[in-house]
Amino acid sequence: MIPLSIPKLNGNEWKYVQDCLNTGWISSAGSYVNQFEEMVAKYAGAKYGVACMNGTAGLHMAQILLGVTENDHVIAPNITFIATLNAIKYTGAQPILIDVDPTNWQMDLDLLEHYLSNQTEIRSTEAGNFSFDTSTNKRVRAIMPVHVLGNIGDMNRMLAIAKTYHLDIIEDSTEALGSTFNGKHAGTFGKIGVFSFNGNKIISTGGGGVIVTDDEELAKKARHLTTQAKVSAMDYIHDEIGFNYRLVNVLAAIGVAQMEQFPGILKAKKAMDAYYREHLNEVGDIQFQAIPEGANPNGWLFTFSTSRMRELLAYLNDNGVQSRPFWMPMNQLEMFKNDIYITKKDVSASVYQNSISIPSSAGITPEQMETVVKTIKKFYTLVR
Ligand SMILES: *Cc1c(COP(=O)(O)O)cnc(C)c1O
């Protein structure tokens, strides 16, 4: 079976992990943690990085850092991996789901603007002017764009919208390490960005995440809150309800080795993306995810749409090519059914019905890619 997405561990991973074991520095203190978060922040062009045990914890922490509570709304795209929405729900806030663009599958910015201009109003409070949803009277605090599949929407337009409506931006950049918009890295447009290093991401620490920000206070607070909010090096004195969210040194050691190889891995992913786009072009009724002008995606997980998605999915998995459907839209899940969903044509439903992800491991070989393409072509000759 050609796997969907597995990590490539050909560098210093073993050496650095061994170093942790040999020295006894296996837990949440240790130099690899600092080194890893610095490497990620520097790569993305952010001033600070704070390593977390996974991307979900990072996204949860981001909500807390910006003060999101049960009195707030946070705006998110209706098509994303569940963790985005879970992070919002952990705080008690209510998500506002926005349908996606039919071509690039990112949050539809026309619908976002439509919602904000028609269903919110700006009210002045003691803390400043903020947008409130006129049906719930809750403050709309932040937008959480998700750079779906490593692709990236028009971030300049989103920044302008956020400014007009007094909203913060938390970027779910968990899939987008290495993606840029107009040369600026995903994760650095908003106040906070979060990367994930889960097993299936572009590089991996097994489990892990890094919060990036240019705001020194937020970075300090993140470091404090992810380590149980302990105020003294000696005494067990804590000044807030904290979290045990820090990444451990053993995993950060893998992360340092992965970051060392990241430029090469990114190049390979982009070559893979180009290969699939060239060789699957006009095969059956395949449609590729559109890349917005100015976007330079990392090519994380190759996904396309076809009206025969379910048949193709079964065929590929039966013929040695591991493939997966896309995420079920959030509004269709039991937990989010009653949340506000802003849509005109429920594009999410059709994107979900038609999209399929194919093998995209960092270490995928040219022979494997050729087999994937051949198998897909064979399917379309059979069903013609
Ligand atoms: C992977 C992912 C996450 C969560 O990251 P973990 O490290 O797995 O917790 C969140 N959002 C999206 C869109 C993801 O793809």
What's the SSE blueprint?
Layout: H1 13-23, H2 31-44, E1 48-52, H3 55-65, E2 72-77, H4 82-90, E3 94-98, H5 109-119, E4 120-125, E5 128-133, E6 139-143, H6 155-164, E7 168-172, E8 180-181, E9 184-185, E10 192-196, E11 209-213, H7 216-225, H8 249-279, E12 287-288, E13 295-296, E14 303-305, H9 309-318, E15 324-325, E16 340-342, H10 347-354, E17 355-357, H11 366-383
Parallel strand pairs: 2-3, 2-6, 3-16, 6-7, 7-10
Antiparallel strand pairs: 1-11, 4-5, 8-9, 8-13, 10-11, 12-14, 14-17, 15-17
The protein binds pyridoxal-5'-phosphate (PLP).
The site of pyridoxal-5'-phosphate has 14 residues, from helix 3 and helix 4.
Description:
By secondary structure, this protein is of the alpha/beta class. It folds into 2 domains: 13-260, Aspartate Aminotransferase, domain 2; 262-382, Aspartate Aminotransferase, domain 1 (Alpha-Beta Complex). The protein contains 11 helices and 17 strands. The strands form 4 sheets. The protein has an 8-stranded mixed β-sheet, sandwiched between helices. Helix 1 (13-23) packs antiparallel against helix 8 and helix 3 runs parallel beside helix 4 (82-90). The longest helix is centred in the C-terminal third of the chain and has 31 residues, at 249-279. The chain starts with 12 loop residues before the first helix and ends with a helix. The structure holds pyridoxal-5'-phosphate. Pyridoxal-5'-phosphate binds next to helix 3 and helix 4.
